[in-house]
Amino acid sequence: MITVVRTANIHDGKIDAAFAWAVKIAKYGRDKLGMNTQVARNVGGEVYQLHWVSTYPSLADAEKATKHAEGDEGFKALVAEARQQGLLVGTSIRDSIYESVG
Hints:
alpha+beta; Alpha-Beta Plaits; four-stranded antiparallel β-sheet; 3 helices; 4 strands; globular
């Protein structure tokens, strides 16, 4: 099992809008693209940060899902919406990939 966590920092004053948008794009991924993605927030640590957590059977499946999303016009429109609203700090976005071992 592969878990992919995409983390992004939120611009000051945009926390409510950013979480609403993050849930919206995760729902789109689940409903339209078949992705198993949830939105998470920190209980401790940085407040202005959010995470999309997705699970896949294999690394190949994770890569396939990413390529599929990147080519989807609806997904691209949602990404553009976040840019237009200035919700996230672009240079803060990072992916972490984990493999289950037990």
